[in-house]
Amino acid sequence: MPILIYGTEKYSQFRTLMPGIILSVVLAFAATFISDHHGGPTLLYALLFGMSLNSLIEGSSAKPGIEFTGRSILRIGVALLGARIGLDQISQLGLNSTLVLIFAVITTIIAGVLLARLFGFDKRFGLLTGGSTAICGASAALAISAAMPPSENRERTTLFAVVAVTTLSTLAMILYPPFALWLNLSPEESGFFIGGTIHDVAQVVGAGYSISPEAGDSATVAKLFRVALLVPITLFVTTIFKQTSQNKVKAYLPPLFLIGFIAFTGLRSAGLLSDQIISQLSELSRWCLVTAIAAVGLKTSLRDVLQVGHQALILVVVETLIIAGIIIASIFLMR
């Protein structure tokens, strides 16, 4: 009898979540279709589609499922990102390039926190925008936000970070390749510049291989190393934002999605994942993130995002210029 009651409760919870999950998945399919057939960033499409329907889901039965998708499905997607990164890829960078990327990421995040206070925002917003600019765009914004404690403005600031870094990443994909050629960078240097500066993985691949295959390979490796830094950065975020004495004890225990990220990275590095499985897990991760960002969009109105203000956009632009300046300077210094 207890088993039957437990099963009935779980089924009832599942039925409650299904409308929101299905709506988010439908928007993810729509965003992917538009992106595949007309170009453009899938995550941004999913976000905008969700925001366009925000007023229609207020008070609807879809809200519980949307909340679940924007939280739990998001964390599953972040965990699966680990399957895209192996230690063999990271080792191709070399010591000097590795140190430069670490320095660039840390400096950009610190600059984001300091500049956020200068522009009148709190350190959470600076950490969110700095981390998403420095590491891997929308994916980092979602992961860092998931590691932060709940707050009144978290959804709104996360959405703004996703919109801002995705837009700037798309612009960079168009502008950075001719800029690299104008600087007379070699294919490997161009790839390092592209991979060390552009926010989102898809735009890095597109920009790198638009220059040459060698530049594309170099860009991908540099970018994957930045993505790998998501683990220590998110652990750091988890630790510093724990406030109660009980949470301070738990602060040093990584969230489950980070444990999953590390586990998948370890499995890939150990050669326990075939190329087919890696491809499937990467695709599943992409679908989880697109579905989650659609759900996040459904929860927030465009009016809320615009309330962040133009100063926030300037902050993200400055952070983008900081990491680009560091990478360019390092290329010329390492010649």
From TrEMBL:
Family to which this protein belongs: Belongs to the UPF0324 family.
Q: Which UniProt keywords apply?
A: Cell membrane, Membrane, Transmembrane, Transmembrane helix
User: In what way does this protein cross or attach to the membrane?
Assistant: Multi-pass membrane protein
The record's InterPro entries line, in alphabetical order, gives: UPF0324_pro
Q: Which Pfam families match?
A: Cons_hypoth698 (PF03601)
Question: Which segments cross the bilayer?
Answer: 16-35, 42-62, 99-119, 125-147, 159-179, 224-241, 253-272, 308-333
**Name of the protein this chain belongs to:** YeiH family protein
Species, as recorded: Kiloniella antarctica
Compartments, as annotated in UniProt: Cell membrane
Q: What is its main location?
A: membrane
